[in-house]
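During the second half of the funding period, the structural biology subgroup turned its attention to how the target accommodates small molecules. The most pressing case was 1,5-di-O-phosphono-alpha-D-ribofuranose, which had performed well in the primary screen but for which no bound structure existed. We therefore specified the complex as follows and requested a full 3D prediction, including the ligand pose.
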Amino acid sequence: MSSGRLIAVVGPSGVGKDSVMAGLARACPALRLVRRTITRAPGLGGEEYDAVTPEAFDVMARAGAFCVHWSAHGLRYGIPADVLDDVRAGTDCLANFSRGALADAVQVFPALSVLNITASADTLAHRLAGRGREPQAEIAARLAQAEKPLPAGLAAITIRNDGPLDDTVARALAALQPRRS
Ligand SMILES: Nc1ncnc2c1ncn2[C@@H]1O[C@H](COP(=O)(O)OP(=O)(O)OP(=O)(O)O)[C@@H](O)[C@H]1O
Ligand SMILES: O=P(O)(O)OC[C@H]1O[C@H](OP(=O)(O)O)[C@H](O)[C@@H]1O
């Protein structure tokens, strides 16, 4: 059986990564939508995640519970180790990723596709305020990181998400099929 790929969805906070991922997963039920472990309080919405304390995250990381993990926005994020098993077994997996963790991900996942979602600064500010998950000071800190670059030389599919979500999902689907890395 040929292996699957990890599709790492990246882009600035509020650009619509989780929204685009949900649309892709609806269109392709065979895709595994990765549920991350995050040191965030439970139930804040935006995505389904396993909420853990920083202490529990440390224990899990040391025990090998994650195939990739990173820190951002004062939080820690982990991709469950069994995602690597699934990819090796042929399942395509879709994960909300950090631009800062892509260099690590390339080492772990030889078949990595990077889906880079972009939108204007005004759009990001409007969406983060509308979502209301973070207080205003944190929204400002997230907006300040909007231009963080991807690792030099890494191939990525770049899709704008300034317009209707359905259009973005359709363009992302077309770009991801046939398989590209
Ligand atoms: N094309 C779109 N048009 C209108 N609103 C959108 C669109 N895409 C996403 N949104 C809205 O923008 C907000 C942010 O989207 P989402 O949570 O998916 O972003 P994100 O990139 O996953 O953010 P984060 O990295 O902070 O988790 C949400 O309220 C979502 O409903
Ligand atoms: O800025 P970079 O490193 O690309 O992304 C950092 C983190 O920001 C987002 O997290 P959240 O879901 O908004 O908490 C992403 O999912 C990623 O984990």
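Two results from this model are relevant to the next phase. The helical segments are 17-27, 54-62, 82-88, 102-108, 121-131, 136-144, 165-176. Residues 11, 13-19, 46, 96, 127, 130-131, 161, 164-165, 168 surround adenosine-5'-triphosphate (ligand 1) (CB under 6 Å).
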